[in-house]
Amino acid sequence: MPRVVVDVMPKPEILDPQGKAVHGALPRLGFTGVSDVRQGKRFELEVEGPVTDEVLAEVARMAETLLSNPVIENYTVRIEESVEVQA
Amino acid sequence: MPRVVVDVMPKPEILDPQGKAVHGALPRLGFTGVSDVRQGKRFELEVEGPVTDEVLAEVARMAETLLSNPVIENYTVRIEESVEVQA
Which residue of A has its CA nearest to B63? Predict the structure, then answer.
């Protein structure tokens, strides 16, 4: 079944306390070399039928009204390609 | 600066109440044609220096110990390509 992915991230100018907490925890766990972390949300939508431009536009409306807060978050909509699963 | 993305999603056999809530809200907002929704997390890590295989392996260890709960979540690690921003 086709899958559409919506990524929702805090806008660059918005503070991201979750990302900051992760960034602060990394050196305490012995991890180095990461200069910044941002945390957002990922939605995977299973769509009935083929993923047309109309479907992607409809998903963009869902992202704008339900999945994200456009005041503080950006979103991207894309069709999922093959993903290298690592775990 | 190179960016590494870690996507963390609930395992397929694990209930996903957040995704279920989103899925249930869509028809109430007039959206149809979506048969399932899963919600997970997306982390964007800014890495110092080039993204080598060692860096990706280190990020995978971060994902396993800090960013995900391996009992109930899967993660993927990848280098971010160009993204079509929609908002």
Answer: A87
